[in-house]
Amino acid sequence: MAKKNNGLFDRGFIARLPFLLTLIFSALVLILPFAQGTGDNMVDAASIKVTMVNQEPDPAEAGEIVLVRLKVENVGRENAEDVQVELLPEFPFSFVPGEESIKKTGSVYGKQIGKFGVILDFRLSIDEGGVEGDYEIDIKYKVKDGPWTKTAPLTVEIKPHTILLGVRKVISSPYPMVQGNPSEVSVQLENLGKSLIRDIKVNLDLANVPFAVLESTNEKLLANIGPNSTGTVKFTLAPLPDAKSSLYKIPLKISFFDRLGNLYTKNDTMGLAVGGEPELIAYLDSSEILSPGESGRVSIRLVNAGVTDVKFLTASAAPGEGYRITSSQVLYLGNIDSDDYETASFSLSVSPKAKRPITIPLTAKFKDSNNREFEKNFTVSLPLYSSSEAASLGLKKNNTGFKIFSLIIVIAVAGFVYYRLRRKKHKGKELL
Question: In terms of pTM, does the model score above 0.90?
Answer without folding.
Answer: no
